[in-house]
Amino acid sequence: MTHPLITLEHSLWRTETRFDRALMDATFAPGFREFGRSGRRYSRDELLPDGETHRIDAALHNLTVNDLSDTLALVTYISELRTPDGAEWANRSSLWDHSSGIWQLRFHQGTPCEALP
After folding, report:
1. 0.85 exceeded by pTM
2. What is the rounded CA–CA span in Å between residue 96 and residue 89?
């Protein structure tokens, strides 16, 4: 059986789900923060969809879920974001919280890394 966080993490990287405001409003926990691949910090409000969409072409590699407690889990993986200018690679980590009864993303970080062989 696939861990539900694998599906949720992938939803952040699919055009049809990432730009669904209701879904992302439910996914991002109150107080959510992100440290982006660029080094920029983002708030929950900055990352909620605003009606604009663009095509996302990405693959997630080496995705693992580590349960930290009954209500917290750490998801780590390597993202490959394909753009017309080439691929952007990053180590990714997401802290997910289930204390509200549903999985919500509390924190996410991306750090540039070398491409996988």
Report:
1. yes
2. 22
